[in-house]
Amino acid sequence: MTKPGCLMVGPMSENVVAQLNALFTVHNFWEAEDKPAFLNEIAPTTRYVITPGSRGCSAEIINGLPGLELVASMGVGYDAVDVAAAKAANVRVTNTPDVLNDCVAEVTLGLMLSLAHRIPQADRYVREGHWENAKYPLADELFGRRAGILGLGRIGKEIARRLEAMRMEIVYHGRTRQEDQPYRFYDNLVTMAREVDWLVVIAPKSAATNNIVNADVMDALGPEGCLVNVARGSLVDQEAMIALLEAGKLGGAALDVFAREPHVPQRLRDLENVVLLPHVGSATRATRRRMEDLTVANLRAHMNGEELVSPVA
Ligand code: NAP
Ligand code: 8YV
Q1: Alpha-helical regions (H) of 70-225
Q2: Could you report the per-residue pLDDT of 210-223, keeping only the tens digit for each?
Q3: Start-end ranges of CATH 3.40.50.720 in the chain?
Q4: Which atom of ligand 2 lies nearest, measured to the CA of 104?
Q5: What is the CATH code for 5-97+286-303?
Q6: Which of 202, 235, 261, 284 most suits a substitution to test ligand 1, by most atoms within 8 Å of the C-beta?
Q7: How much distance in Å is there from the Cα of 76 to the middle of ligand 2?
Q8: pLDDT per residue over 54-109, tens digit each?
């Protein structure tokens, strides 16, 4: 029996490719020079798309493959998949929730400890030999501070647990109060920002969250306040953030995500009161393996006529 076609939008790991080759005829989209012609050519036999979350799946791909049944996206955030186009074409979409919660929460804690204790700068201080001449300046700590979580979802809750272990006070903002949560709820983000020391952003990218952390929110966080973004760059007004950090009106920022990745503006890279990571929230071998396997498990389930493991709503 001939294997159905699966379009791979961007390069994926050997583990994924090996599993896909056993099930499908795999088509590498990123290598095609004439993409519309390529889609045309593979359309008659292609029922599946697999994609790294960062690349997603455009309406052009979805509409260019009339036999498409499922888009399996690797990542919990599926903002790069045109879900409206998929829905209109009766194409299912899956993502990879939960399997990365602990990893992203750990990285968030690492970012916060790094910014408070100035760990990257202190490391540089030793490497560059400055310790021989003078003591390193005093830093700050998480203990006793209040953290406001914007987006107390699957990952937000794991971050909260870890910050509790740091003996921080936790509060949160979202569209709805979660009665089963022990933390104080704020229905207004500016009010929460005014009353916390740290604002941790971990809500999905959407039209509603675009620049949700605007100049007013960051002003309210203030010169002693620290911003942490592990969600998507689009949730923070990056220009306003840089201006406030430069002016000392925002205390610091710890960032895993940016407005135009992988571009990070020079003005941001020049600042001392920031810690910058190249979008590595889920980038460990074990977590990526779990994400990969879940992505393929969804394809396999659909092929076998079973329930999808993790469909998006
Ligand atoms: P989740 O379980 O769906 O939680 C999202 C939270 O955001 C919910 O508590 C939700 O609460 C809140 N939210 C949604 N829309 C909102 C709005 N308009 N205003 C305020 N709050 C809103 O998602 P998750 O699995 O924790 O993942 C969250 C996001 O993290 C992903 O979408 C992804 O973009 C990002 N992420 C980044 C990395 C990385 O590598 N840096 C890794 C994984 C995930 P309400 O429904 O009450 O509003
Ligand atoms: C990855 C992520 O960068 O899951 C997400 O939403 O942002 C990260 O885990 C990426 O999506 C992996 O393809």
Answers
A1: 83-88, 101-117, 119-127, 154-165, 189-195, 215-221
A2: 999 999 999 999 99
A3: 5-97+286-303, 101-276
A4: 9
A5: 3.40.50.720
A6: 202
A7: 6
A8: 999 999 999 999 999 999 999 999 999 999 999 999 999 999 999 999 999 999 99
